[in-house]
Specification:
This protein is an alpha/beta fold. The strands form two sheets. The protein has a five-stranded parallel β-sheet, sandwiched between helices. A two-stranded antiparallel sheet has the order 6-7. Strand 6 and strand 7 form a beta hairpin. The protein starts with a strand and ends with a helix. The structure holds zinc ion. The site of zinc ion (ZN) has 9 residues, from helix 8.
Length: 242
């Protein structure tokens, strides 16, 4: 079975992977999604991923027709072996080396390996991940060199011809808002604001113009600043065309 024009998106329900989902349906004939339950501190992330998926399906019938299976897999071992602020109830701090303690060592490498195993089984060649080098607090497994090495390793180790796509690799958060707007317009950015989840503390009660979150954790700060830049640039562009 070969699905040359099918893509598998690593979809967590956050802003970045929601934008990747839109990028995928915009670029491929069929799109499947995969998510992992690894003992995140807050299950809101997993609830949000279902809400984003169903909101996208409702708002974009053409995309709905392209969307195939959603795969959700529990990998509690990742939480068991990680002492990090994403899986334990500890405060988010930055270590001396610069990496925040939200860093789960090798998390994206594990996700990509599992996604490739699913893609292999389903004959899917294209794998899409919303990782990037710009705004990720320096997570080394989000960088381009990690991803291209991973692509090589997966292709050698599975005797395959996978292509790992990372459409957000060189985009900052403002550019990611622009990309979502470019692909799906305000309908899509509204879905991302309302349903996608970014906050490390799992706050779904405090609503800002950029979405829900505590407003103070590093993830909220990035998302808020990115959205502010997006609104400023959009207003400027509108004024220029008046
Ligand atoms: Zn937050």
């Amino acid at each position: 079975m070969s699905q040359e024009d099918t893509a598998l998106v690593l979809f967590s329900g956050g802003q970045d992977s929601s934008t990747c989902l839109a990028w995928a349906v915009d670029n491929f004939a069929r799109v499947e999604t995969v998510g992992f339950d690894y003992g995140q501190r807050h299950s809101v992330e997993l609830d949000c991923r279902m809400e984003v998926l169903s909101a996208v399906r409702r708002a974009f019938p053409a995309w709905n027709r392209k969307l195939g299976d959603d795969h959700l897999h529990a990998i509690p071992v990742l939480g068991n072996i990680s002492e990090t602020a994403l899986t334990r109830d500890t405060e988010i701090v930055f270590a001396e080396g610069g990496l925040p303690n939200t860093f789960v060592p090798g998390r994206n490498l594990i996700f990509l390996t599992l996604a490739a195993a699913i893609a292999y089984r389903r004959g899917i060649r294209h794998i899409i991940a919303g990782v990037g080098e710009v705004d990720y607090s320096g997570y080394p497994d989000c960088r381009e060199d990690s991803i291209s090495s991973m692509e090589d390793a997966l292709n050698i180790g599975m005797e395959s011809d996978f292509i790992l796509h990372t459409p957000l690799m060189h985009l900052d958060k403002t550019a990611i808002w622009h990309l979502a707007d470019h692909i799906g317009g305000p309908e899509l950015t509204d879905i991302i604001i309302e349903y996608s989840h970014t906050c490390y503390l799992g706050d779904r009660n405090t609503r800002h113009d950029w979405g829900y979150g505590c407003g103070h954790c590093p993830a909220c700060a990035l998302r808020a600043a990115g959205h502010e830049g997006f609104i400023e640039q959009t207003v400027k562009a509108d004024k220029a065309t008046e």
